[in-house]
Amino acid sequence: MSIKLTKLPELSCEELSDRETLLLQLLREREECIQQLTDEIARLKGEKGKPKIKPSRLEPEKKAQGQQEKTEGEATQEEQAKKKRPGSEKRQKTANLIIHETKVIEPNKEIPTGSEFKGYQDYTVQELIIRAHNTRYRLARKENPNRRIYKRKVTEVGTNSGTRGA
To answer: In the 8-state DSSP scheme, what is residue 43?
Structure first.
């Protein structure tokens, strides 16, 4: 025979009078006592009771480390960088890449007169042509007097194999 008890709502101490607080405390103690007796009955019948799970030993260490960091103040950038997983830092993957060929690509639209050259936007494509061959496409960007930028899309530029990378 199992008796199901309704859970008591969590109430703050400010909402309760002293008597009500005392009664809730007594109810919680009774619930604990009933649970202990239920476990004892189950043990005597040969049934398995609730398993006793020990708390993790790692959690107090983490909490202690967190408190030390709070007392020391903010960690330096070097310490934060050490906490990152290996290989998670961002780096430019084409920075050390050897460029075999550079092609300048002009916008294919008719550029209005008075437009000003604003530099290049680099786009690197890595292709394998029996030998390594890296091409940097320099997309010319031009700005008209109305501040509109004109440039050609990389997808409009043909490559040897027809594939494009980043």
So the answer is: H
Which of 100, 94, 105, 164 is CA-nearest to residue 139? 105
Helices then strands, counting H and E runs in the chain, come out as 3, 4
Residue 145 tokens, joined: 């007097």
Structure tokens that stand for 51 in this block:
């398993």
> Which residues are bridge partners to 138 per DSSP?
104, 122
pLDDT in tens, 46-86: 887 677 888 877 765 655 555 555 545 555 666 665 676 76
The DSSP element (H or E) to which 142 belongs, if any, is strand 131-143
**CA dist., res. 74 & res. 72, Å (int):** 7
Domain coordinates in residue numbering, the chain: 13-49, 101-156
Residue 77, burial from CB neighbour count under 10 angstroms (0-12, 13-18, 19+): exposed
Tell me 155's DSSP state: G
